[in-house]
């Protein structure tokens, strides 16, 4: 099977995007704090519900001059949902066509993930904070293959019933209770916080937030703004701590939405809230709602709204180049969003894709300029779309080979030492 590696290496080599000279290494040696915004969609940014900003803190961060804010960044998850997002964000390899790569292959596959890359390029210590049981999505095994030094799962936190909602510890408590561990961590560190309160169907006790609820027939839609607002408040509290503790000054903070919160069927009820006419709403509009935030905030960073098209697969090379890490030898399917060579064709797991000018769904072409279907595409456009579709299908099949044939066991990048999962032991917090 190692011969299957050749087409992968050839694709990666010709697809590689060189760093942007004005951004390469600007964050070298900084701590990296990654904040996973559960089920948070880009349309919430700058959105007002009944005249009130849903996420005032994130809005201010989005428009901050020290934030690179990506307005055309898409989730690319399949059935693995959160775990697919984690895989793409930290390895730049897609999830699987069906199921979750974490669950099905995560225990035994070889990965070359952010924690191990940064350990070997800057001696970073790494940790994940997530208030759910460590076995969910098989994380406790996967993270050892990713090279995480620490995994603070629910056993490290006070998860009395009042502190927990659905999949785990409430976000304000996750951030608040993680500080005592974060302060002990050797710097530079790579620390990921996985939030969970803003999760379908978005229940939130009145005492945790009084943000107004919508009054559609769909409770998920009605509650979505309240849990997103709660998440926003938890982020503001965490940033206040980062600034007062001094950690903010020597950290690069990355925030991303993992996937949609409201599904296409929920969107029917969302329309009335968004003031959209159901008769003019279709597949194209549902596809546009698959944008999620991707923001990189760092003191002194030359920020600004970035309109280039991209997705979760592109995050790792983007982050590594900012940290001054050379990515040429890694098998990463994404490209640096800040590079002039960045590939703006965004592949979805189901082989659909978006580009700056067109959205192509099951072969139907839509113009992004006005959302209309291109019913009579010119020969030139048909040829261009066929080329894009071919690349998307090819790229996804190569990624599937990497996962399903565990190809990275046959490929060790120059200067990279394979991870030995037996070096890691995430003792439970119940000491
Ligand atoms: C589970 C939490 C939610 O620990 O991350 O996962 P999801 O349901 O979004 O995949
Ligand atoms: Mn999720």
Automatic annotation (TrEMBL):
Domain of life: Bacteria
Top-level class of the enzyme under EC nomenclature: transferase
Metabolic or biological pathway, per its Swiss-Prot or TrEMBL entry: Cell wall biogenesis; lipoteichoic acid biosynthesis
Subcellular location: Cell membrane
GO molecular function, one term: transferase activity
The family this protein is said to belong to: Belongs to the LTA synthase family.
Protein name from the UniProt record: Lipoteichoic acid synthase 1
Organism the protein comes from: Latilactobacillus fuchuensis
Included stretch of the parent chain: 227 to 657 of 722
